[in-house]
Amino acid sequence: MTIEIKTATLEPVRNTYANVERRFGDKPATRYQEATYDLQSETNFHYRPLWQPDLELNDTRRTAIQMADWYALKDPRQFYYGTYVQQRAKMQENAESNYAFFEKRDLARHLSEERQAEVIRYLVPLRHLEHTANLNNMYGAAYGYGTAITQALLFDGMDRLGIAQYLSRIGLILDGNSGDALAEAKQQWMEADIWQGLRALCEEMLVTEDWFEVSVAQNLVVDTLVYDLVYAQFDQYLADNGAQDVAMLTEFMQLWYKDTTRWVDAVIKTTATESEENKALLAQWIEKWRGKAAEALAPLASAMLNDEALAQSLAELDKRVAKAGIK
């Protein structure tokens, strides 16, 4: 008896979803494309929002920026829920390992009282800035347009909560889990002169209506200046003055900033390339918030490092802006 085995190839009826097919053709799509493009509802809403009856629920007029296709603002990291969670889980696993090592070896006892006081005074209060960044990005996720950018803003907002928690843990490690460092850091944020400019800047960003302008102010201008001042220059200062172990606790922030910079720069560059009107508006917003942020951060930068530190951070911001083709 002979057995003849035949194989049959079944051709799929379609290779992807209809909305993705209309944009890219009937061919296998990436998970990012399927989880991103043309997902936002645009028609058939029952009611206009009661708080803004002149606008639709999802409306491009909530920002002065104009795009022919809002899905041009794609994320170069191609983050959708699955890839975002996987990538951040790896980063968190490494961060938890660093924190466990720091606590197990009790490395805090190697920090002088002066260095510990500086960390509590200059680093831990930033958790309040991260909470502001969370709200700013959530605002963009709620009122922005196009899943390509709103989902990235949502992921960024969640990242900021995580960073705020890590900053709180640094304070708890230094005060033996008493919470005294967090209380002192909050008092610094609320009352110390060096923080009041940044506090006022946070409040101004929170009441700015244009969601794209808020993103430019927070994710480009303020983040560039603060992360360069704190996680680059202040980190180097700590390393040069016997507190190099603190870098283990801030590595997550440094890796995160490098990662998110790719997305922010791509969005700014694509928006500026879209039209001369967009380019001029971005330049106007950057100049406006650059001046406000420089004024707000000057006392902090001078007290934390020196009078030249802020100029170095501003040069870093100017470099990013020029790279995006705006100036």
Rg on CA atoms, Å: 23 Å
Low-confidence stretches: none
Please state the structural category. mainly alpha
Helix count equals 12
Number of strands: 0
End-to-end CA span? 80 Å
Q: What is the approximate shape?
A: globular
Topology:
Elements lengths: L17 H7 L6 H4 L46 H24 L8 H11 L2 H18 L3 H28 L5 H12 L1 H14 L4 H30 L6 H28 L1 H29 L4 H15 L4
Helix pairs in contact: 3-10, 4-7, 5-6, 5-8, 5-9, 6-7, 6-10, 7-8, 8-11, 9-10, 9-11, 9-12, 10-11, 11-12
Structure description:
By secondary structure, the chain is mainly α. The chain is 67% helix and 0% strand. The chain is built from twelve helices and no strands. The protein is globular, with a radius of gyration of 23 Å. The protein starts with 17 loop residues before the first helix and ends with a helix. The relative contact order is 0.12. The model has no long low-confidence stretch (mean pLDDT 96).
